[in-house]
Structure formats: C-alpha cells, structure tokens
Amino acid sequence: MDKMIQTARGELIITNDGATILKSTQALHPAAKMLVDLSAAQDVEVGDGTTSVVILAGSLLGAAQKMLAKGIHPTMIAQSFTKASVKAVEYLTEMSIPIQLSDSASLLRAASTSLNSKIMSQYSSTLAPIAVAAVSRLATQSSSDVDLRDIRIVKKVGGTIEDTELVENGLVLHQNAITDAGGPTRVESAKIALIQFQLSAPKPDMDNVVIVSNYLQMDKINKEKRRYLGNLCIKIKKTGCNVLLIQKSILRDAVDALALQYLSQMKILVVKDIERDEIQFLSKTLGCKPIADIEAFSEEKFGRAELVDDVSRLGSRLLKISGIRNMGPTVSLVAMGSNKVVLDECERSLHDALCVVRCLVKKRALIGGGGAPEIHVSRMLSEYANSLKGVESYCFHAYAEALEVIPVTLAENAGLDAIAIVTELRNRHALGERNAGINVRRVSLHICYLALAIAHSRNLKGLVSDVLDEDVVQPLLVSTSAVELATETVCLLLKIDDYVQAR
Ligand SMILES: Nc1ncnc2c1ncn2[C@@H]1O[C@H](COP(=O)(O)OP(=O)(O)OP(=O)(O)O)[C@@H](O)[C@H]1O
Ligand SMILES: [Mg+2]
C-alpha cells in the first residue's frame, strides 16, 4: 500500500518507497532510528528492497524477543542469527540464475518487477525500458559498477508519465534561455561556455558607503559599469562563443540586466542559475571545462553541439542541447507528469528501477520474487537446523520462520488470506517447486474480474505460481543485501543491554 505524508513544511508526498517513508517519520527512540538508518543503508547499497529490509529486521526482532523470553542469552541468539544469515546468503546464491549484461530482456524483467509494486506500475512498460537503456549506455561488459550520478532526471510538469523519455545524444537543462532582453532561444552550431564568474558590476570587499551627490558622479558610475560589462561581453564574443551557461552566485547577480542586453545584441544565448552540483555533470556531458575567470576564457574550453533550442513540450519549456560533439558518458532523462507529487514519485520509482539494473551490473544474477526465495531459504534453513544441536538449532528454526514474513506481507497487501497462501507455498516447495511464489499482478486481475470469489474459495492455484514463468524477478544482490543488513542491525540491537541518555 502507498503512504501519504505531510511534511513539516506542509508539502505532500505520496509514495511507496520504504526509505522515503521512513526518512519522513521522525523516529525518537534510538533503536527506531537504527531501523530508519537500516533502510537508508539498503538504499545506498542497492537502492531497492528498502521496505523488505525493515520488515525482515522487525520479524527477526520479534523472533529474538520470543527467545529472550525463554531465557536464551542474547549473545547466543546474535551468533546463531549471524551464522544463519551466512547460510541464507549461500542458499540464495545457489538458487540464483546467472545472466549476461547483453541479455536486455532479463534486465527489463527485473526493472519491471521493481516498478510493479509502485504507483507507477501501469507505466512500467515506459519506464522499465528507459531505465535499462540508461544504465546499459554507461555499463560495458567489463564494468563492475555504474555511477548513477551520471544519469540525470529532469522533471517537467506536463503530459503524463508515458511522455517520459531518454534524450538521445543530448542533454536537457532544468533552466531556460533568458529572453528578458530579447536574446536568442535557438542557436545552431553552438559553442558552449560554462562560466563560474559573474557578469555584473563587482562589489567592494568591505561594506563601504559611497555618497553620490550629483548627476555627474552618477553618470561616471554608470559609464564605468558600462565599460566594465561591455569589455567582458566583447571578450566573450571575440572567442566565438554563442551559448553561455552561468553558474548561480550568492555573492552578487550572476548576470545583470545591462550585461544581458549586450549579450542579446551579440546573439548569445544565456542560461543562468546553473547549480554548483550540476557543473560536473554538464562539463562531463558537453566535454567543456568550467571557466572561473574572464582571463581564462578561451575557445578550447568550449563544448560544441549542433543545436541548442528552447523548445516547448506538452506545456513545459525545455532547453535541449542536441548533437553534442564528443559527448561524455552520461544520460539525461526527461520525466513528464501531470503534477509535482506524481513527478516526485516517478523520479523515486525510476531511481529504484535504475538501481535494480545497476545491481545486475554489479552482480550478474537474478532470483525470483514474490516470496519464493524467502520460502525456499526458510525451508533449507529449517532442514539444516535439524542437523544442529541445542540452542543453535532452535535459533536457526526461529530465523527460518522469521523469513516467512515477506510472503505473508505480500499476501496481506494483496488482500489475500496470508496463512492459506503461505501453507500452499510451503506445500509447493516441499514438492520441489522452489520458484513457487505469489504473483500479485495475477491476484489483482483475479480481484478485478472475479470479485474476490477465487481468493475466498481458496483456489490458490492461479495465485501461487512459478515466479520465473511469471517474470517476477529481482537482482540477487537486493535479497542478499537485505538479509545481511537486517541481520547485522538485529544482532547489534541484541547485544545492547542498557540505554543511557547522555546530557
Ligand atoms: N508481481 C509481483 N508479484 C508478487 N510479488 C511481487 C511482484 N512484484 C514485486 N513483488 C515483490 O514485492 C517485493 C518488493 O516490494 P516493494 O518494491 O514494495 O518493496 P521493496 O523493494 O522492499 O522496497 P522499496 O521498493 O520501497 O525500496 C519483493 O519481495 C518482490 O519480490
Ligand atoms: Mg522495490
């Protein structure tokens, strides 16, 4: 289910993303804060599975609590849980299916699964291919990771999510061309300079008071300003530059009205308010070097493109730079949506899908979803626990049972009878179907068309199916990381026996 969050500043967030939900909650207890951090850690590590990791940790804590009540020492529980998690990762790895990066169908299936649970699920046919294409452009056969900072999502209100697109051999900016002084909005054969200095009159270093007592002095100041700005603009024009990207400045105006007037007369397209953290992405994409001083302003630092155009798309203005010469290894995505709330969730969902594909670059293996791996690992761990003795065996059994929380939660969220589903899953796994899981897409169809009749009549055959056949797959790394991180946090909490508040 999705959550509606009202932030302290009155903003509205509608999301399904675990990390975002938890970040917005203001947890007070340090142990609760650790669970929020756990979700954030999973977000950094793999980007998806941020809800599962916390659900798993909660279930493990519940299991531990029952064992503590029986008098088992927390250190013993923590040790056994750590061993059980190592075994669980082994079983997960053993059931995974290795894939090749060139196998884009598999990448697409994994990206679609990550979008299935989101509000954006109806647009997964648009977003999943975009996520796969974006990561595939940056990854080579030999790469072991992809830096997602090289993929930029520009959000624009207008149209629907279906209008979201990947920009081919180009770049899109958040900012628009300035037209206040009548400057150009379209430039062909662009020579683009990215500057970090200001095109406005300098300010004194200290707070000085200059008293202007007559028009003559006023004229002198204006003349000096015109001369200073004119010189700057002439120097810029002389180099042949025709597109100027100006970094935002907090010291003084990045570009003032007079400079804009000169630049528009010189037919130079101006974009201001480039953020400091955009500089690296822009210079990498355009192949240009940021210029910090007018003295260093020279042609070899420019980026070149066939066209810079301020276009209008579905009611939004977009500054598009296309046909970039020697474009760097980056990708720009334009996310479109009818309002800000939808767009923000679209960005988070796209981020999850991008992370899923990145996980497959890091570790090229897939496993089924829909609770199938958890039930399999739970069964295998229980079997293994029978070969152990004493308390350790007991702890392994408890750990195995705790893993079943994932299929239980999936079933509950789909409005199904969780106990019946999990029992059916256990049966099917005992019969050797180790990829038997819940397919929620199929469940929703059942719910829509058969008005819950099938679910109530306990005819679970259609709901529990082979998840690999149903294309419900996820990266191995998401599951292994969730198991490892959740166990680590639970063990950390178990080893604490007192809480001291330092003042
Ligand atoms: N069509 C489907 N049928 C059944 N289960 C599915 C389906 N699609 C995804 N799942 C399962 O849903 C779970 C993921 O749910 P969800 O994406 O809401 O949470 P998360 O990945 O843990 O966290 P988040 O996406 O918020 O970071 C996984 O266990 C996955 O196997
Ligand atoms: Mg997910």
Highlighted features:
single chain, 503 residues, alpha+beta, GROEL, domain 1, GroEL, 2 domains, 6-stranded mixed sheet, 3-stranded antiparallel sheet, 17 helices, 16 strands, 48% helix, elongated, binds adenosine-5'-triphosphate, binds magnesium ion
Short description:
With 503 residues, the chain is of the alpha+beta class. It has helices at 18-24, 30-45, 50-69, 74-95, 104-116, 124-138, 215-238, 257-265, 279-286, 340-362, 372-386, 390-403, 405-413, 418-430, 440-450, 453-456, 476-494; strands at residues 3-6, 12-15, 97-98, 151-157, 165-166, 170-173, 186-195, 243-247, 269-274, 303-313, 316-324, 331-337, 365-368, 436-438, 464-466, 473-475. The model is unreliable at 445-460 (pLDDT under 50).
What does this entry look like structurally?
α7 (215-238) links the parallel β7 and β8 (243-247). Strands 6-11-10-7-8-9 form a 6-stranded mixed sheet. A 3-stranded antiparallel sheet has the order 3-13-16. By secondary structure, the chain is an alpha+beta fold. The protein folds into 2 domains: 3-99 and 367-495, GROEL, domain 1 (Orthogonal Bundle); 176-203 and 212-326, GroEL. It has helices spanning 18-24, 30-45, 50-69, 74-95, 104-116, 124-138, 215-238, 257-265, 279-286, 340-362, 372-386, 390-403, 405-413, 418-430, 440-450, 453-456, 476-494, and strands at residues 3-6, 12-15, 97-98, 151-157, 165-166, 170-173, 186-195, 243-247, 269-274, 303-313, 316-324, 331-337, 365-368, 436-438, 464-466, 473-475. Residues 16-18, 48-52, 113, 116-117, 352, 369-370, 406, 410, 438-441, 472, 474 line the site of adenosine-5'-triphosphate.
